[in-house]
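Quick one, probably user error.
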């Protein structure tokens, strides 16, 4: 017997890891850094969340409570914390909304993982259990979801309003939500009904007025004035529009060289040739019946000179110059015309047709509007107004989130309640499921279920309510079978959230849980950081 007891310590020594301390320290450091990032954005969750003022190195100031924007602007150095920044970017590209939610869920999961690790559960066991729990969570959410028809405009507007209600510009949600819905529905292609390309919705920002003056324009808007040189026209009815990518200016030599002119006759001849060259071009343009020119910005030489503008004005052709290269595709798709790269290819069939092109004064500047386009492509333009640049930028970010929400609903047509209802229901059902599982798995799934309560807890906390009382009441309601009971932050009590029109797309919730779980599993698996110089 004595021989057996003596042999035991030696065998356990050879089987155990010697240096586990460092690995535990690295894991703890990673989890703490990632949780610090999650705590930074936690206060901006929900309709009563706080806003962040971000001051950049070049003196620019941004006021926002959009999780993706806040994290994007933060200079995070710790590699594990950077993963949370990437996590919010992934949610932004996958669903467009719920960027704060996904980071807060990840932070809560990491907190639970730290407890499990201290209790001696192996990271791989935790990781596998989280994966199972997230798959089960997606099934539970899908079972809770309410199907939606794309023709049901009211439900789409409710969902967009829910997204806008937590933004700085929430008081304008009654204007921006229908605007977002109409703009997405106008670019949906019947041939591919579940695909929406948000690049077909152009957002133009113009200082002056208030957010109330924001409008949806069926056509094109250029944030620049028409060329006024030599009294050119600024309004054109029955417009025939050409998008040109060549320069209406005297040609230059292909190589860098100078021409020496010795006497005046040669100089006159050069000027005369230049005039004839430009006149020849303008005659070809006029011959096709074109009366509006959109000229792409040129980097090689001036796209137009004073002389060419003078002749274009005489020919009664309206000129809008310095059109950005990246806008050309959108413009040609909208006008249903072709860009013209050379004067020799200038033909009438390449022109776009519109009822009216006019210059309009807005605030302290001018814009050019193109309306009544014939055979218009599936695009639309939103003109955002605001009293200062901060408000305009935030309105654009909020509108982008609302557009993404509507896009989610077009691609996956299910709605789900908001206000912390899905998270509490998940927590309840996963908690019940964990009792059926055996061993460590059940323990880990229970921790996952507890972590999801962070969303209703934070919503209540940010609204200035008593979070413990609210979450306990919410749990009680859900256990009685009210699966759509959620926190109504305006009334400060628990109500049926679907009846209050607080709804969100199913895709936002499912992608938040799957992405957060994936990120946490990845952080758990890291046991060392190697710096390469």
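Nope, works fine. Designed sequence:
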């Amino acid at each position: 017997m004595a021989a057996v007891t003596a042999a035991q310590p030696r065998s356990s020594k050879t089987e155990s890891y010697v240096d586990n301390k460092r690995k535990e320290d690295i894991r703890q450091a990673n989890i703490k850094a990632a949780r610090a990032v999650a705590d930074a954005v936690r206060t901006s969750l929900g309709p009563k969340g706080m806003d962040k003022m971000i001051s950049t190195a070049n003196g620019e100031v941004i006021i926002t409570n959009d999780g993706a924007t806040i994290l994007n602007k933060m200079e995070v150095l710790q590699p594990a914390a950077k993963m949370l920044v990437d996590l919010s970017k992934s949610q932004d590209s996958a669903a467009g909304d719920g960027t704060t939610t996904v980071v807060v869920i990840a932070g809560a999961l990491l907190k639970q993982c730290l407890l499990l690790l201290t209790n001696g559960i192996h990271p791989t066991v935790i990781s596998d259990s989280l994966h199972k729990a997230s798959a089960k969570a997606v099934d539970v959410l899908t079972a809770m979801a309410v199907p939606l028809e794309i023709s049901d405009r009211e439900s789409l507007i409710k969902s967009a309003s829910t997204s806008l209600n937590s933004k700085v510009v929430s008081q304008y949600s009654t204007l921006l939500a229908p605007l977002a819905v109409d703009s997405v529905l106008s670019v949906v292609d019947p041939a591919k009904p579940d695909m929406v390309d948000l690049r077909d919705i152009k957002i133009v920002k113009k200082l002056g007025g208030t957010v109330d003056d924001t409008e949806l324009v069926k056509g094109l808007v250029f944030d620049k004035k028409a060329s006024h040189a030599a009294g050119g026209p600024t309004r054109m009815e029955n417009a025939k529009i050409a998008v040109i990518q060549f320069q209406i200016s005297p040609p230059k030599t292909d190589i860098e060289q100078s021409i020496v002119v010795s006497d005046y006759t040669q100089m006159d001849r050069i000027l005369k040739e230049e005039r004839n060259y430009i006149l020849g071009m303008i005659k070809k343009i006029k011959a096709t019946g074109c009366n509006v020119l959109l000229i792409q910005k040129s980097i090689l030489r001036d796209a137009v000179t004073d002389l060419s503008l003078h002749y274009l004005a005489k020919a009664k052709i309206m000129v809008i110059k310095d059109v950005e290269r990246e806008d050309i595709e959108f413009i040609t798709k909208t006008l249903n015309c072709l860009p013209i790269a050379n004067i020799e290819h200038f033909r009438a069939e390449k022109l776009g047709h519109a009822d009216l092109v006019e210059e309009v004064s807005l605030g302290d500047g001018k814009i050019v509007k193109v309306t009544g386009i014939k055979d218009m492509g599936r695009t639309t333009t939103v003109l955002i107004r605001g009293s200062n640049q901060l408000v305009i930028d935030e309105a654009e970010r909020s509108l982008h989130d609302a557009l993404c929400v509507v896009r989610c609903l077009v691609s996956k047509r299910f709605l789900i309640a908001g206000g912390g209802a899905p998270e509490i229901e998940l927590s309840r059902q996963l908690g019940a499921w964990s009792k059926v599982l055996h061993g460590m798995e059940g323990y880990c799934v229970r921790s996952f279920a507890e972590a999801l309560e962070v969303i209703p807890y934070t919503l209540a906390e940010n609204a200035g309510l008593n979070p413990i009382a609210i979450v306990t009441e919410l749990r009680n309601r859900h256990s009685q079978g009210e699966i759509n009971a959620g926190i109504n932050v305006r009334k400060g009590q628990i109500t049926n959230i679907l009846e209050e029109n607080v709804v969100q797309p199913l895709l936002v919730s499912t992608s938040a849980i799957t992405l957060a779980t994936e990120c946490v599993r990845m952080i758990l698996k890291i046991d060392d950081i190697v710096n390469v110089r």
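Residues 264-287 form the longest helix (24 residues).
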